[in-house]
Structure formats: structure tokens, C-alpha cells
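Ops channel
N.P.: pipeline sanity check, posting one input/output pair.
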């Protein structure tokens, strides 16, 4: 029984880590990816929005897309400029402003029967210690997470599923459109914890592995 539980935990960790590192199996997933604005461009986040605490003036982006790994993930198609997003929100003592970009992806990336909402940008004014996930929650309602704190839906999109594998997907359409830098339009679409960003998913895997190891060591001592 002990070996079965430990083996199960390790297998779960491997499955979760595989979602973050995808290239080995090249399995594509439909999920919310999480990005940092870096001036005029975007960088894939290595920490989940539930734990990342951005500074005042930061810009965080969320993009719903189909991809197998971070290298192929579609970036938010709106600009990452803080001034353009938060110019109408005055600074306040004890609060910070975080630009939020929500790109719901393309119709090609949408789950069957759903149409992505129009992309949007918001300026979240939150407490100085707020996480990126809390900043997102301040400007977007109906967030949905799975039991591992993986962000599944923003503003109710998509209505179901969470980082689901995509059958028969080859070349994600979102990758090509993201690299062009085109502005999000009516076909664009905009979860607490950014899609399965590498840091968040890796953290879940680490917790599973460490928990299994602790159980094994404790029972070994008692034996």
C-alpha cells in the first residue's frame, strides 16, 4: 500500500510537470498562459499569478491559446505598455497599479461551440502586497480555478474544462498570430493561477513529490 501511494504521487507529479514541459510528447493543450510585460514585448512567466507579486507599474498578460510548451504559446496581442493602460488611474498612497491584458485567443483556439470574447485591457489598483492573481480578480469577474490552483477560466471563458489536451492538433494557429504582433480584434479572446505557467505547474509537481517523500520517510522511521 505504501509503495502504491508513493508511486501514484510520483506519477501525478510527472503528469503535471509534463504539462509544463510538453515538447517531449508534443501534446498540445488548450489553456490560459501567463505573461509579463517587458516594455514593448512579452515574456513567458516562470511563476504563477497566485504567488507572483508585481510591483507598481507592472503589466501582466493572460492569453488563452493552444500550445505544447511555453516556446510555442501565443502571446497577448495587445501592447504591454503600462502608461497606455493605466493613464486614467491616478496613483494612491498604500496602493499599486498593475496593467492587466486579457486576450481570450482566436476562434480557432476556442473549445467547441464557444466564441472568444473581445480582448480587453484594465488597470487594477490593489494593495501593495497583492498578487497578480488578485490584480486579475479586481478587474475580471468569474474566475475559475481547479483544485491545484490552476487558472481555468477568466470572465467565465471557457465555460468548462481546464488545460485540456487537444486531439489532432498540429500547428497552433495562435502561435503564428501572436508573433505578428497584431492588435486583438473582435475574434480575440482574453484563469487564479495563469494558465499552466511553468512555475505554477512545476510548483504543484514539487509539492506532490515532496509530500510523497515525507510520507515514505515517516513510515520508514516507524517501521
Amino acid at each position: 500500500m505504501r509503495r502504491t501511494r508513493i508511486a501514484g504521487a510520483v506519477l501525478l507529479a510527472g503528469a503535471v510537470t509534463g504539462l509544463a514541459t510538453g515538447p517531449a510528447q508534443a501534446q498540445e493543450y488548450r489553456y490560459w498562459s501567463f505573461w509579463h510585460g517587458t516594455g514593448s514585448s512579452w515574456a513567458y512567466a516562470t511563476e504563477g499569478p497566485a504567488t507572483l507579486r508585481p510591483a507598481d507599474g507592472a503589466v501582466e498578460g493572460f492569453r488563452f491559446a493552444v500550445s505544447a510548451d511555453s516556446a510555442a504559446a501565443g502571446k497577448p496581442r495587445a501592447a504591454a505598455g503600462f502608461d497606455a493602460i493605466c493613464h486614467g488611474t491616478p496613483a494612491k498612497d498604500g496602493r499599486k497599479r498593475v496593467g492587466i491584458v486579457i486576450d481570450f485567443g482566436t476562434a480557432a483556439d476556442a473549445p467547441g461551440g464557444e466564441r472568444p470574447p473581445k480582448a480587453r485591457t484594465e488597470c487594477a489598483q490593489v494593495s501593495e502586497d497583492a498578487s497578480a492573481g488578485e490584480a486579475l480578480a479586481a478587474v475580471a469577474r468569474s474566475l475559475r480555478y481547479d483544485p491545484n490552483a490552476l487558472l481555468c477560466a477568466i470572465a467565465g471563458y471557457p465555460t468548462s474544462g481546464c488545460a485540456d489536451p487537444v486531439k489532432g492538433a498540429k500547428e497552433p494557429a495562435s502561435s503564428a498570430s501572436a508573433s505578428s504582433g497584431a492588435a486583438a480584434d473582435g475574434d480575440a479572446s482574453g484563469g487564479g493561477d495563469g494558465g499552466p505557467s511553468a512555475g505554477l505547474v512545476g510548483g504543484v509537481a514539487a509539492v506532490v513529490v515532496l509530500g510523497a517523500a515525507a510520507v515514505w520517510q515517516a513510515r520508514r522511521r516507524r517501521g
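N.P.: looks fine end to end. Residues 198-222 form the longest helix (25 residues).
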